[in-house]
Amino acid sequence: MTGHFHEVPRRRRQAIWRGVIAFGLNVIFAAGALAQKINIEFDQAVNFSKFKTFAVRDGQINSPNPALNSELTKKRLEAEIEQALTARGLTKTTGPSDLNVFFHLGSLRRMETEAYPAGWRGLRTRVVRTPHTEGTLVIDLRDSTTRSLVWRGIATEERATPAKLADKLDDMVKKSVAKYPPKK
Fold this sequence. Notes:
Blueprint: H1 2-33, E1 37-42, E2 53-62, H2 71-87, E3 91-92, E4 99-118, E5 124-143, E6 149-159, H3 162-167, H4 169-177
Helix pairs in contact: 2-4
């Protein structure tokens, strides 16, 4: 009988630790899942110091949500890109330019499923479905003389709602353009 009393608390402790570990992992992975990712690609053969001026030529938004798919969002993105490139030493122009800027914003609503131990002694599994919106902003810089792509910034952000994603667009632009000109 003495062994029986020692078995119950040990099992209970194991169940508690399994729950604590599962919760900790969920917090870590959830924070990582909602992190912003910035990637850049560029033409290694291009001398970026020759580019002095830019013009935003076209922007496209492809989102089923009205919080993102609007003319106001497009204007806001254009202004953020212009401000970020100006801060990097380029001059905005409306006529002929050294670089032509194009951007594309797309979003997708996703459902993520997470499972972790639950119930008495942690023997059951609890499944939680978490919706989130994934947005991708692509900024292309093209050499106006050759019309070839010389630099591309890709920013990916995951947020709980499209409205929260819209609040992060300026940050997505700033972090992408901060990597221009690229370090070879």
